[in-house]
Amino acid sequence: MLKRIVLLLVAFPVAAFLVTLAVANRHSARLVLDPFRPEAPVISVDLPFYAYIFGALLIGVIAGGVSVWMSQGHWRHTARARTQEARRWHAEADRLARERDAEVGRVKQLALVGR
Questions:
Q1: What's the mean pLDDT in 87-108?
Q2: Residue-by-residue DSSP string for 41-96
Q3: Cβ partners under 8 Å of residue 70, min gap 6
Q4: Averaged pLDDT for residues 59-85
């Protein structure tokens, strides 16, 4: 419940801000991708200015996510190695428990036969 309240308290103001930003920057702007002839560009894009702002925001979020993912690769590798080690130790413990139970069963069998 608290998560939902916090989400609403954060999401609505952010959404209102983004809508306001889009409405205030809805005029068309040209992005020229030809550095040699900017007055008569071969490649250019005409979009509303807010599209450029949102595009830059999206590229920043993606670049940040990739950067964090790459920087945490060491920890993921360590977690995989420790998981494999834990599975190995668990399998060893299961094997030893089965051997112990088999030995206890043999001792009980011998005790019953020896009576």
A1: 93
A2: -SSEEEEEHHHHHHHHHHHHHHHHHHHHHHHTHHHHHHHHHHHHHHHHHHHHHHHH
A3: none
A4: 96
- Domain segments of the chain as ranges: 24-72, 80-115
Position 107 pLDDT exceeds 80: yes
Q: Six-digit token pair at 24?
A: 């205030």
In angstroms, the CA 20 to CA 44 distance is 27
**pLDDT value, residue 114:** 65
Whether the per-residue pLDDT at 44 is higher than 80: the answer is: yes
Task: Indicate yes or no: pTM above 0.70.
Answer: no
Cα distances (Å, whole numbers) of residue 12 to 4, 6, 15, 61, 110: 12, 10, 5, 20, 76
Specify the DSSP class assigned to residue 29.
Answer: E
Contact criterion met (CB below 8 Å) for 49 and 25: yes
8 A C-beta contact, residue 33 and residue 41 = yes
Q: Over the stretch 11-41, which tens digit does the pLDDT of each residue have?
A: 889 888 888 988 888 888 888 888 888 788 8
